[in-house]
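User: Can you model how adenosine-5'-triphosphate sits in this protein?
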Amino acid sequence: MASVTFEKAQRWFPGADVPAVPGIDLEIADGEFMVLVGPSGCGKSTTLRMLAGLEEVNSGKIFIGDREVTNIPPKDRDIAMVFQNYALYPHMSVAENMAFSLKMAKVPEEERRRRVEDAAKILGLTEFLDRKPKALSGGQRQRVAMGRAIVRSPQVFCMDEPLSNLDAKMRVHTRTDIAKLQADLGVTTVYVTHDQVEAMTMGDRVAVMKLGELQQVDTPLRLYDKPANLFVAGFIGSPQMNLMEATAVDGQAKVGEYLVPVDPTASKKMQGKITVGVRPENWRLVSANEGGLPVKVTVVEELGADSYVYGTSDVAGVPSTVIVRVSGRDTVHKGETVYVTTDPEHVHVFDTETGERLSD
Ligand code: ATP
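Assistant: Here's the modeled complex, given as structure tokens:
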């Protein structure tokens, strides 16, 4: 096992106007589960592929432990990849598929069998070892792909959207399996996904990327509670954080007629156009005369314990969507106007132009 370090690692594809990854600096601790997440095209696969040696590094360095691997061929890096398209060999049994790379590496047969049996036990695949891939479910095939990686006892697992071929239910199931497996094996893992829920539920830390640049690298809770900029605030969380244009006047933030409570740090820093963010669960219903934000309700989604109230609020004449989570026992109806407010510790203030976080 080992740490992984990217030092200003750059990938510039031939003929492209800008680099896909201009220069990434990232340190991943020994045994850590690091998730790279971001929208399509943000450079997360390219970053992972540079680590795996599948993509050239144009400048900068990559280390696995103390060893620089920047120019080392993939097979000598001591990593194992698990891809979205796990492409098992159809004519080989599960055991043969899992043992294949060991055979190529000329590992003796007895040792191969032992490693495959151990991995099969961990993955619950023992009874399927003699089957061909076509006689397995999608989830079982995915576990065989994991098995192929595990038998090699690599220093690092590199996983690129390994769950995207599974249906929604199987994905939820398998993501828990992978997270548990990784914790048990303690192998440093870099995992790429575009799904923020997957990122939040699996990662020890999550690296959020946009246009090849890291936006924030943090624990899932820190990302949720203290997003470093507007992009992270909007990307992490479902339903999304309510982000509203506001005006800063004398240390106070106004959304239309609503005076948003902000913390002293934000109050000192903010000027002119700002954006305030409030998560749906941080609103509280108040009565009409308490100076809350008026929200005209368009849809109420009742989930049992909670309900999500979707509505619009006129901000300087422009209707903007507001989402409020209320208790499932609160009675809110489509068509009515409710009033909501919140507390300073739940208000995220950002500079609209730079996107930078201004609140604590
Ligand atoms: P996705 O989730 O869609 O796979 P991603 O975040 O993994 O996206 P990358 O695949 O790393 O993004 O791509 C980053 C950028 O590099 C994109 O603009 C993409 O078009 C470009 N790119 C990727 N591979 C190549 C290539 N082989 N040649 C030229 N440009 C490429």
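A couple of observations from the model: Residues 13, 16, 20, 38, 40-46, 194 surround adenosine-5'-triphosphate (CB under 6 Å). The radius of gyration is 24 Å.
User: Helpful, thanks.
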